[in-house]
Amino acid sequence: MDGYQLQWGNLTLHLLPEKAIYVEELRSLLIADPHFGKAAHFRKAGIPVSEKLHIGDLMVIQKLMQTYHPKHLYFLGDLFHSDLNIAWNDLETFAVYHPETNFHLIKGNHDILPDAVYRSDIWQVHVEPLTIGNLILSHEPMTNIPSDKINLCGHIHPGISLYGTGRQKLTLPCFFICPNQIILPAFGRFTGLYTMKCGKNDNAFVIAEKKVIPVNFID
Length: 219
Known about the structure:
The protein is of the alpha/beta class and 219 residues long. It has a single domain, classed as Purple Acid Phosphatase, chain A, domain 2 (4-Layer Sandwich), CATH 3.60.21. The strands form 2 sheets. Strands 8, 9, 10, 11, 12, 13, 14, 15 and 16 form a 9-stranded mixed beta sheet that branches. The chain has a 7-stranded mixed beta sheet with strand order 1-2-3-4-5-6-7, covered by helices on one side. A hairpin with a 3-residue loop joins β2 and β3. The two termini are 31 Å apart.
């Protein structure tokens, strides 16, 4: 599967078709909006959604960890969707089997589990945006970002609509890049997309057919 490599200052950012970013120099893997537990949340409401959806997402993370051997795994918010359910046990078991990696959570609006749920020996929980060198990690996109920093975030679930002949329209998840900011696509497959409006200083890299592809905007 083909990713796309960006250079920002002294950092090499790998935009991955698995909807994640790997920061080479920091040995850090970044994932936004997995929304684990959402399937069980919908089943509780009487909507039949298979738990295999989340197991498949964990298998994708497992493959990424086997490929990149990250020292740190940062979830950029909305790790777990709404109330506590059985999916949390699967997530913690997964983390326990990777003691070589530090698991971080930058809290998002859906991260409403009681503080006691986050076991201190597994999770490093950050309530506020986290600054690491020239990176600022947050859940929601920030404004007024210092010129020497880049904000990596989620929350939006960005997508781009592409148009073809015969009124064909296809909306795909993307990495959305505006000055000093990269908004990651939602990692979870059961999340939906928000179609982004693109300005002249914006760029997008869509995820299609297991590749990350730059999109050229025409004014």
